[in-house]
Amino acid sequence: MATPEPSRPVGMDEQSPSGAAATAIHFLSLYPYAYTTGDLTTWKEMSEDDCIFCNSVITNVTDLHANGGWSDMWPLEIMVLTHGADPADPNRLVIKTHITAPAHTAHRGRPSEAFTVDAQDVIVRIQLYWHGDRWIVEEGEVTEQTTEGEDK
Fold first, then answer.
1. Residue 60 CA neighbour count, 13 Å, CB half
2. pLDDT tens digits in sequence order for the chain, 152 residues long
3. How far apart are CA 144 and CA 152, in angstroms?
4. Could you tell me which residues are beta bridge partners of residue 104?
């Protein structure tokens, strides 16, 4: 699919709370892109190998596309709510975000079967670690979901 990858925000490579926040926003903006295109290159580059959240997205996107599926692109509104540092390690920050997304259409199987993915209004925490020249996502977690998740 000819969907452009989201642009990297300015400041992503700064070792600062604003750099971590920019990285979290970019990482989360890759979510619909990956489901639409199946391209996980940047998602993987930004993910720690042991990140359960990151790896679950990799598995789900890979399975969807391997079986002939995809999602129509959808917009995300991502707002940074807070950031917190790890008192034991100043290279680790947690960014708390509020994400809203409209309902959108996804497709699975061959022949393609369309289904609706419900609108989302969620709080997502992203834990990042500074690895010398960039932030890497160590963990992600949906901590609050105010609407039904995927399905129909």
1. 15
2. 479 999 999 999 999 999 999 999 999 999 999 999 999 999 999 999 999 999 999 999 999 999 999 999 999 999 999 999 999 999 999 999 999 999 999 999 888 899 999 999 999 999 999 999 999 999 999 987 765 444 33
3. 21
4. 117
- Take residue 128 and report the two structure tokens written for it: 């990042």
* CB atoms near residue 3 (< 10 Å): 13
Q: By the 8 A CB rule, do 151 and 118 touch?
A: yes
With H, G, I as helix, E, B as strand and everything else as coil, classify residue 118.
coil
Q: Is 79 helix (H, G, I), strand (E, B) or coil?
A: strand
Structure tokens that stand for 36 in this block: 């639409």
**Single pTM value for the model:** 0.92
